[in-house]
Protein backbone atom coordinates (compact mmCIF):
# COMPACT_ATOMS: atom_id res chain seq x y z
CA UNK A 1 0.00 0.00 0.00
CA UNK A 2 2.76 2.45 0.91
CA UNK A 3 4.61 1.97 -2.35
CA UNK A 4 1.35 2.66 -4.23
CA UNK A 5 0.51 5.77 -2.19
CA UNK A 6 0.91 9.01 -4.15
CA UNK A 7 2.80 10.74 -1.33
CA UNK A 8 5.19 7.81 -0.82
CA UNK A 9 6.15 7.54 -4.49
CA UNK A 10 7.67 11.04 -4.38
CA UNK A 11 9.89 10.43 -1.33
CA UNK A 12 13.59 9.64 -1.45
CA UNK A 13 14.67 6.18 -0.33
CA UNK A 14 15.80 7.55 3.05
CA UNK A 15 12.56 9.49 3.56
CA UNK A 16 10.48 6.44 2.69
CA UNK A 17 12.44 4.34 5.17
CA UNK A 18 11.65 6.84 7.94
CA UNK A 19 7.98 6.87 6.92
CA UNK A 20 7.69 3.08 6.90
CA UNK A 21 9.35 2.80 10.31
CA UNK A 22 6.78 5.21 11.74
CA UNK A 23 3.66 3.37 10.57
CA UNK A 24 1.76 0.57 12.24
CA UNK A 25 -1.43 -1.25 11.29
CA UNK A 26 -4.69 -1.48 13.21
CA UNK A 27 -7.73 -3.65 12.54
CA UNK A 28 -11.07 -1.93 13.19
CA UNK A 29 -14.33 -3.89 13.29
CA UNK A 30 -17.39 -2.59 11.46
CA UNK A 31 -19.19 0.07 13.50
CA UNK A 32 -16.16 0.83 15.69
CA UNK A 33 -14.26 4.10 15.87
CA UNK A 34 -10.92 4.63 14.18
CA UNK A 35 -10.65 7.87 16.16
CA UNK A 36 -13.08 10.14 17.97
CA UNK A 37 -13.98 13.79 18.05
CA UNK A 38 -12.28 15.60 20.91
CA UNK A 39 -9.29 13.23 21.14
CA UNK A 40 -5.72 14.42 20.81
CA UNK A 41 -4.42 13.97 17.27
CA UNK A 42 -1.61 11.43 17.40
CA UNK A 43 -1.74 9.77 13.96
CA UNK A 44 -2.26 10.31 10.27
CA UNK A 45 -4.42 7.53 8.82
CA UNK A 46 -4.64 5.55 5.59
CA UNK A 47 -7.16 2.89 4.63
CA UNK A 48 -5.44 -0.35 3.62
CA UNK A 49 -8.65 -2.32 3.28
CA UNK A 50 -12.29 -1.60 4.12
CA UNK A 51 -14.28 1.63 4.18
CA UNK A 52 -14.54 4.43 6.75
CA UNK A 53 -16.56 7.60 7.06
CA UNK A 54 -15.68 10.95 8.60
CA UNK A 55 -18.63 12.39 10.49
CA UNK A 56 -19.60 14.86 13.16
CA UNK A 57 -22.26 14.06 15.74
CA UNK A 58 -24.01 16.85 17.64
CA UNK A 59 -25.63 16.82 21.08
CA UNK A 60 -28.98 17.31 19.31
CA UNK A 61 -28.63 13.82 17.84
CA UNK A 62 -27.98 15.04 14.31
CA UNK A 63 -25.10 13.57 12.32
CA UNK A 64 -23.27 15.16 9.41
CA UNK A 65 -21.23 12.87 7.17
CA UNK A 66 -18.18 14.73 5.91
CA UNK A 67 -16.60 12.14 3.61
CA UNK A 68 -16.08 8.47 2.90
CA UNK A 69 -12.59 7.03 2.50
CA UNK A 70 -12.04 3.81 0.51
CA UNK A 71 -8.83 1.75 0.30
CA UNK A 72 -5.83 3.84 -0.75
CA UNK A 73 -7.18 7.05 0.78
CA UNK A 74 -5.38 8.99 3.52
CA UNK A 75 -7.09 11.42 5.87
CA UNK A 76 -6.51 13.67 8.88
CA UNK A 77 -3.57 15.69 7.57
CA UNK A 78 -5.35 18.96 8.43
CA UNK A 79 -5.76 17.85 12.02
CA UNK A 80 -2.10 16.83 12.17
CA UNK A 81 -1.00 20.32 11.15
CA UNK A 82 -2.97 21.93 14.00
CA UNK A 83 -2.59 21.62 17.76
CA UNK A 84 -6.29 21.36 18.59
CA UNK A 85 -8.36 18.27 19.48
CA UNK A 86 -9.81 16.26 16.58
CA UNK A 87 -13.00 17.84 15.23
CA UNK A 88 -14.67 14.76 13.75
CA UNK A 89 -15.29 11.06 14.32
CA UNK A 90 -14.00 8.36 11.99
CA UNK A 91 -16.07 5.16 11.94
CA UNK A 92 -15.47 1.90 10.08
CA UNK A 93 -18.47 1.04 7.91
CA UNK A 94 -17.07 -2.48 7.47
CA UNK A 95 -14.16 -4.45 8.94
CA UNK A 96 -11.15 -2.33 8.00
CA UNK A 97 -7.35 -2.34 8.15
CA UNK A 98 -5.92 1.08 8.92
CA UNK A 99 -2.36 2.38 8.53
CA UNK A 100 -1.39 4.77 11.35
CA UNK A 101 1.56 7.13 10.95
CA UNK A 102 2.85 8.53 14.25
CA UNK A 103 2.75 12.29 14.71
CA UNK A 104 6.53 12.42 15.20
CA UNK A 105 7.05 10.74 11.81
CA UNK A 106 4.54 13.01 10.09
CA UNK A 107 6.21 16.09 11.58
CA UNK A 108 9.66 14.82 10.51
CA UNK A 109 8.43 14.53 6.92
CA UNK A 110 6.96 18.04 7.07
CA UNK A 111 10.30 19.38 8.30
CA UNK A 112 12.55 17.43 5.94
CA UNK A 113 10.72 16.49 2.73
CA UNK A 114 9.86 19.05 0.05
CA UNK A 115 7.97 16.36 -1.87
CA UNK A 116 5.79 15.56 1.14
CA UNK A 117 4.97 19.24 1.60
CA UNK A 118 3.96 19.54 -2.05
CA UNK A 119 1.71 16.52 -1.54
CA UNK A 120 0.09 18.11 1.52
CA UNK A 121 -0.68 21.37 -0.32
CA UNK A 122 -2.37 19.44 -3.13
CA UNK A 123 -4.17 17.12 -0.71
CA UNK A 124 -5.59 19.97 1.38
CA UNK A 125 -6.66 21.91 -1.70
CA UNK A 126 -8.43 18.91 -3.20
CA UNK A 127 -10.14 18.07 0.08
CA UNK A 128 -11.39 21.65 0.43
CA UNK A 129 -12.85 21.45 -3.06
CA UNK A 130 -14.50 18.11 -2.22
CA UNK A 131 -16.06 19.48 0.96
CA UNK A 132 -17.37 22.57 -0.82
CA UNK A 133 -18.97 20.33 -3.45
CA UNK A 134 -20.55 18.09 -0.83
CA UNK A 135 -21.86 21.10 1.08
CA UNK A 136 -23.36 22.45 -2.14
CA UNK A 137 -25.07 19.14 -2.88
CA UNK A 138 -26.44 18.91 0.67
CA UNK A 139 -27.84 22.46 0.55
CA UNK A 140 -28.99 22.77 -3.07
CA UNK A 141 -29.39 19.39 -4.77
CA UNK A 142 -32.00 16.64 -4.59
CA UNK A 143 -31.44 13.22 -3.08
CA UNK A 144 -30.45 11.53 -6.36
CA UNK A 145 -27.73 14.14 -6.89
CA UNK A 146 -26.51 13.76 -3.30
CA UNK A 147 -26.16 10.01 -3.79
CA UNK A 148 -24.31 10.61 -7.07
CA UNK A 149 -21.90 13.04 -5.39
CA UNK A 150 -21.29 10.67 -2.46
CA UNK A 151 -20.42 7.82 -4.85
CA UNK A 152 -18.24 9.92 -7.15
CA UNK A 153 -16.29 11.22 -4.13
CA UNK A 154 -15.11 7.65 -3.50
CA UNK A 155 -13.40 7.78 -6.90
CA UNK A 156 -11.75 11.18 -6.43
CA UNK A 157 -8.73 11.08 -8.78
CA UNK A 158 -6.38 12.76 -6.26
CA UNK A 159 -7.69 11.89 -2.80
CA UNK A 160 -8.64 8.29 -3.63
CA UNK A 161 -6.74 7.42 -6.81
CA UNK A 162 -7.72 4.11 -8.37
CA UNK A 163 -7.74 2.70 -11.87
CA UNK A 164 -10.69 0.46 -10.98
CA UNK A 165 -14.19 1.61 -11.93
CA UNK A 166 -15.80 -0.95 -9.62
CA UNK A 167 -16.29 -0.69 -5.87
CA UNK A 168 -17.67 -3.26 -3.48
CA UNK A 169 -20.18 -1.28 -1.44
CA UNK A 170 -23.63 -1.94 -0.04
CA UNK A 171 -26.65 0.31 -0.37
CA UNK A 172 -26.60 0.74 3.40
CA UNK A 173 -23.01 2.00 3.21
CA UNK A 174 -23.91 4.44 0.44
CA UNK A 175 -26.81 5.63 2.58
CA UNK A 176 -24.43 6.24 5.48
CA UNK A 177 -22.22 8.37 3.23
CA UNK A 178 -25.07 10.31 1.59
CA UNK A 179 -27.15 10.72 4.75
CA UNK A 180 -30.25 8.97 3.37
CA UNK A 181 -32.03 5.67 3.98
CA UNK A 182 -31.08 2.43 2.25
CA UNK A 183 -34.50 2.33 0.58
CA UNK A 184 -33.99 5.82 -0.85
CA UNK A 185 -30.51 4.87 -2.05
CA UNK A 186 -32.05 1.99 -3.99
CA UNK A 187 -34.33 4.39 -5.89
CA UNK A 188 -31.44 6.78 -6.58
CA UNK A 189 -29.16 4.02 -7.86
CA UNK A 190 -31.84 2.82 -10.26
CA UNK A 191 -32.26 6.38 -11.56
CA UNK A 192 -28.50 6.72 -12.04
CA UNK A 193 -28.35 3.32 -13.74
CA UNK A 194 -31.22 4.24 -16.08
CA UNK A 195 -29.31 7.43 -16.98
CA UNK A 196 -26.28 5.34 -17.95
CA UNK A 197 -23.91 6.58 -15.25
CA UNK A 198 -23.38 3.30 -13.42
CA UNK A 199 -24.25 -0.37 -13.31
CA UNK A 200 -25.70 -1.98 -10.20
CA UNK A 201 -24.17 -5.37 -9.39
CA UNK A 202 -24.44 -7.80 -6.54
CA UNK A 203 -22.52 -6.32 -3.63
CA UNK A 204 -21.28 -3.26 -5.50
CA UNK A 205 -21.47 -0.86 -8.42
CA UNK A 206 -19.42 -0.15 -11.54
CA UNK A 207 -19.08 3.41 -12.83
CA UNK A 208 -19.73 3.78 -16.55
CA UNK A 209 -19.55 7.56 -16.89
CA UNK A 210 -17.37 9.36 -14.32
CA UNK A 211 -17.79 12.92 -15.72
CA UNK A 212 -21.55 12.49 -15.98
CA UNK A 213 -21.83 11.12 -12.46
CA UNK A 214 -19.80 14.03 -11.05
CA UNK A 215 -21.94 16.60 -12.90
CA UNK A 216 -25.28 14.94 -12.18
CA UNK A 217 -27.81 17.42 -10.82
CA UNK A 218 -25.30 20.26 -10.76
Give a structural overview.
- The structure is a single chain.
- The chain has 218 residues and is an alpha+beta fold.
- It has 2 domains: 6-126, Jelly Rolls (Sandwich); 141-215, Arc Repressor Mutant, subunit A (Orthogonal Bundle).
- It has helices at residues 6-9, 13-21, 77-80, 103-112, 114-140, 143-153, 171-178, 182-194, 210-215, and strands at 23-28, 33-35, 43-49, 52-57, 63-69, 74-75, 89-92, 96-102, 166-168, 198-201, 204-207.
- The strands form 3 sheets. A 4-stranded antiparallel β-sheet has the order 1-8-3-6. It has a 4-stranded antiparallel β-sheet with strand order 2-7-4-5, covered by helices on one side.
- Helix 6 crosses helix 7.
- The protein is globular, with a radius of gyration of 17 Å.
- The two termini are 34 Å apart.
- Tally the helices: what do you get? 9
Mean pLDDT metric: 89
Encode the helix/strand succession as letters.
Answer: HHEEEEEEHEEHHHEHHEEH
Identify the quaternary structure here.
single chain
Biggest sheet: strand arrangement: 1-8-3-6
> How far apart are the first and last residues' alpha carbons, in Å?
34 Å
Per CATH, the architecture of the largest domain is Sandwich
